[in-house]
């Protein structure tokens, strides 16, 4: 989520405000510049790797396995290939999918 989107979500969503502990009746929400600065703090202090390791250990303790891998594409389903067969060109005014032949000038 971008910094402007976070700012907007904090004003629009009670759930988001509750998650971050903001009560708009008591204090204003952070603007996008504040959100952006906050995001850069962990890296500026060399904490990014340590935070990631802590999150991964927590997830592993809950049975979530984090791995890396490769996404492999696949061929389309055989039915999808049938749907891609060329169709006769529809005349102007015909309903979509109406494939009647054009009248001849005989």
Write up what this structure looks like.
There is one protein chain. With 106 residues, the chain is mainly α. It has a domain at 3-61. The chain is 47% helix and 0% strand. It has five helices and no strands. It has helices at residues 3-12, 14-20, 32-44, 48-61, 78-83. The longest helix is centred in the middle third of the chain and has 14 residues, at 48-61. The protein is extended, with a radius of gyration of 28 Å.
The computed structural class is: mainly alpha
Average predicted confidence as pLDDT: 80
Helix content: 40-55%
Share in β-strands: under 5%
| Amino-to-carboxy terminus distance | 64 Å
Number of helices: 5
Rg of Cα set? 28 Å
Write the H/E string, N to C.
HHHHH
Strand tally is: 0
Contiguous runs where pLDDT drops below 50 for at least 5 residues = none
The general outline is extended
Largest sheet: none
Write the layout of secondary structure elements.
Layout: H1 3-12, H2 14-20, H3 32-44, H4 48-61, H5 78-83
List keywords for this structure.
single chain, 106 residues, mainly alpha, 5 helices
Short synopsis of the structure:
The chain has 106 residues and is an all-alpha fold. The chain has five helices and no strands.
